[in-house]
Structures are given as structure tokens and as C-alpha cells.
Specification:
rod-shaped; 85% helix; 119 residues; mainly alpha
């Protein structure tokens, strides 16, 4: 009778150990997934901030017209963001007919960029 009780106890302990290991593995997978999402968010934020910095320095703070190379660089950066809202607002800016409407569209673009930054 004692040998049977010991076997039963060992089986229960073994099953509890397996259950605990399964729970820990699940927590580990969940943690890795959350870390990957955080890294992706951080990379997107960096791209948005880089574009915003170049846009402010090369367009808003410039005393001269935007040259072709600067515009091409900005266009490439916008497309690399893979964000339709930002791209749409960028296209609205580049299609502005006069300085006043371009100024309004630039403000809207900055607003969209700030709203897209996640934390």
C-alpha cells in the first residue's frame, strides 16, 4: 500500500511539474511576442521622427525653395514609413497650389506625424 501511495504522489508531482513548465513556456512566448511588438513600434517611431526632423530642417527652417534631391529624399522616407495617412497628407502638401495652402498642409502633416508616434 505504501509503494502505491508513493507512486501516486510521484505521478501527481510530475504532472504538476509539467503543468508549471507549460505555464512558464506560455509566459515566455507571450513575453517574446510583446518584446517584438515593442521593437517594431520603436523602429516605426524612429522612422517617423527621422522624417519629421529632416522635414523640419530641410523644408520648414529653410530660407530657399526645396530642391529636387531634398524632395526625393523626403518622398522616399515617407514611402518607407508604409503609412497611408502620412502618405496621403504628404501628397496633399506636395500638390498644394500656393504658399498659403502649402503652409496649411504642412501643419496637417506635422499633426499626423505627431499622432502616429506610439509610446
Amino acid at each position: 500500500m505504501q509503494l502505491s501511495n508513493k507512486k501516486s504522489i510521484l505521478i501527481v508531482v510530475f504532472c504538476l511539474s509539467l503543468l508549471c513548465n507549460a505555464v512558464l513556456a506560455l509566459l515566455l512566448v507571450n513575453n517574446v511576442y510583446a518584446q517584438n511588438r515593442a521593437n517594431q513600434t520603436q523602429q516605426l517611431n524612429l522612422k517617423i521622427l527621422s522624417f519629421t526632423n529632416v522635414f523640419i530642417e530641410q523644408v520648414l527652417m529653410s530660407d530657399k525653395d526645396v530642391d529636387f534631391n531634398t524632395r526625393l529624399t523626403l518622398e522616399t522616407m515617407v514611402r518607407n514609413l508604409n503609412d497611408q495617412d502620412i502618405l496621403d497628407q504628404w501628397q496633399s502638401l506636395t500638390q498644394a497650389q500656393d504658399n498659403r495652402s502649402a503652409s496649411v498642409e504642412a501643419k496637417k502633416l506635422l499633426n499626423v506625424l505627431v499622432k502616429k508616434i506610439s509610446y
